[in-house]
């Protein structure tokens, strides 16, 4: 046992605070996505529903992590009641299953979003092939984790036969990082082929590249994947980074869908600063825009974003008239 200053210290408050914060942040962004899609665009696609499923799975995983502080997580194992250890391990097992299942759902959210927003026939074939590989990998890891021990209860009761944890954790982390990178790189060549000016391409690529932040968290998390004697204490960092990884993943999947909401806020601010006349003009412009959206219920906001970028040159030509009658996205 390494020298410990206080055997009775606890980091449970840290676990609960971190979990609550990242879950609240992720839920806010997913909520903004649902509002944008359901009430502004007025159409919900498979990717939007998968984002909701992913968020529910993240909440379940986060709940398991926070609840496990009742069974010793964030405390030193040397002072725990031995009867708590099986309860800790069982909750830990459930959280790992949820973690892997949630990663699979988040990856599906990205892929379904690509399929709908960037889907020419040729592009959809590529997305489908990549999706089949990523989905197979992701759900194979869920299967492996569920049956990592035979019988399953051996994970928390002992006995039986189990796959060694450390090799499995590293294989799992490495494969997830590889598939994450594959998903993030997949749309970039497609976007670069769009008939946009270079600056617009860079902006659009930058939006899709936000997901590399999640990759960075996944890579950083690897350093905390270890088995130690005081595992109830030492697992705190891995648990917190795992929830952070899931939350950042769904946030990055949702951010590109929020442009209509952000545009609505920007133009509302602009209209109030210009006074009554500008407000009337904006209302008329927004109404026309809204009417067009209602007649195209199957358009995704990503498609409209790309369309608006394609028409950027025409918008620039009409700058003078736009100053009198703004025609931005709602």
Automatic annotation (TrEMBL):
Q: Which GO terms describe its cellular component?
A: membrane
Membrane topology value: Multi-pass membrane protein
- Tell me where the transmembrane regions lie: 12-36, 48-68, 88-114, 126-148, 168-190, 202-222
Residues covered by region (Disordered): 271-330
Keywords associated with the record? Membrane, Transmembrane, Transmembrane helix
Instruction: Locate the compositionally biased regions of type Low complexity.
Output: 320-330
Where does the Rhodopsin domain lie?
32-263
Main location class? membrane
Q: Where in the cell is it found?
A: Membrane
Q: Which family does it belong to?
A: Belongs to the SAT4 family.
Q: What is this protein called?
A: Rhodopsin domain-containing protein
